Amino acid sequence: MPNLNLTALFRPEILAMSAYHVADAHNLIKLDAMENPYGWPADIQQAWLEHLKDCPMNRYPDPEAKALSEALRASNNIPAESGLLLGNGSDEIIQILQMALPGNATVMAPEPGFVMYKQIALSLGLRYQGVPLLADGFELDLPAMLAAIESSQPSLIFLAYPNNPTGNLFDAGAIREILAVAPGLVVVDEAYAPFADASFLGELPNYPNLLVMRTVSKLGLAGLRLGFLAGDNAILEQLHKVRLPYNINCLTQITAHFALTHQHFLLAQTRNICQQRGEILAALQDMAGIESYPSAANFILLRTLAHAADEVFISLKNQGVLIKNLSPQGGVLHNCLRVTIGKQEENRAFLAALRNALQNP
Ligand code: PMP
């Protein structure tokens, strides 16, 4: 057998990067990945199982996912004149967008931000430019963004609204200024829209370069892998050429359609999560040694002040609670941890474990 030379086989940027890491949550309270902690009520689950019988497993799924697209339009109030592109999670849409760009294009995003914007840009050999957020409050540094846009002329800008991992909504006026000067596409990533009282969907008719991306993951359907992009038809027409045929499988199409037509239970779960978010934030604000940040999402960013976050993270894990350690990313995330809002008993277990970690380092 010939000796394979990986260095000759793969591009240097692939060899240099690490695969997206997912922590093993076995036997742990899982508060690391912004999932909805609730399952489905028994009656809904029963009705869904009945529904699944209509799924023709021997056939390819509807390539345009028409019924599901209509349900998404209705449940998200997507302007009638806007087009829609569905993806296998919004991750796939981030990839589709970047695959369609010229090889020398620049992709830009504020940092810290969602890691896949950069990961995909690097994997495709595109240029990536991160623009630091203001350290105090994680707001967009508008002069720095405008200067970076002027000098780098990005083909694509991602703005997560609310932002992951900081949890805040950027100033809407600043986003409008970026939309007005950006020479290329601006994707407002509304992954956390179910927990935020703000959206740019209504702005779609005003900005031809605006695309709004959403996902059903945070609403409670992370297992289905379904995201969507709304925007100008002429732009989406180009992106559809890059999309793989049948990228939304029939189980996802039928299940997401079913869930959206019964979405009252998902919306009730979302309201619970928002209420729990308030309770955790209040508890964290009373906790000595912790700085916590306001959130319009289903997670909270916090910083340890007197302890190393790495140690607090390990202590929590040893006590059976898995959250996300952001401290290794450094910069403004030094000593930062991110906790996803769980069920009340999970959140209480997290708070108790955190108090314990701070008192018994
Ligand atoms: N955008 C943001 C801001 C996210 O935080 C995430 C997931 N953590 C995604 C997109 C991807 O979501 P999905 O692929 O599950 O739709």
Automatic annotation (TrEMBL):
Coiled coil: none annotated. Residues 27-354 form the Aminotransferase class I/classII large domain. Keywords: Amino-acid biosynthesis, Aminotransferase, Histidine biosynthesis, Pyridoxal phosphate, Transferase. The modification N6-(pyridoxal phosphate)lysine is found at K218. It holds the Pfam family Aminotran_1_2. Pathway: Amino-acid biosynthesis; L-histidine biosynthesis; L-histidine from 5-phospho-alpha-D-ribose 1-diphosphate: step 7/9. It is an enzyme of class 2 (transferase). Its cofactor is pyridoxal 5'-phosphate. GO terms for molecular function: histidinol-phosphate transaminase activity. Its EC number is 2.6.1.9. InterPro entries: Aminotransferase_I/II_large, HisP_aminotrans, HistidinolP_aminotransfase, PyrdxlP-dep_Trfase, PyrdxlP-dep_Trfase_major, PyrdxlP-dep_Trfase_small. It catalyses: L-histidinol phosphate + 2-oxoglutarate = 3-(imidazol-4-yl)-2-oxopropyl phosphate + L-glutamate. It comes from the Bacteria. The keyword Iron-sulfur does not apply. The keyword Transport does not apply. Belongs to the class-II pyridoxal-phosphate-dependent aminotransferase family. Histidinol-phosphate aminotransferase subfamily. Homodimer. This is Histidinol-phosphate aminotransferase. The gene is hisC.
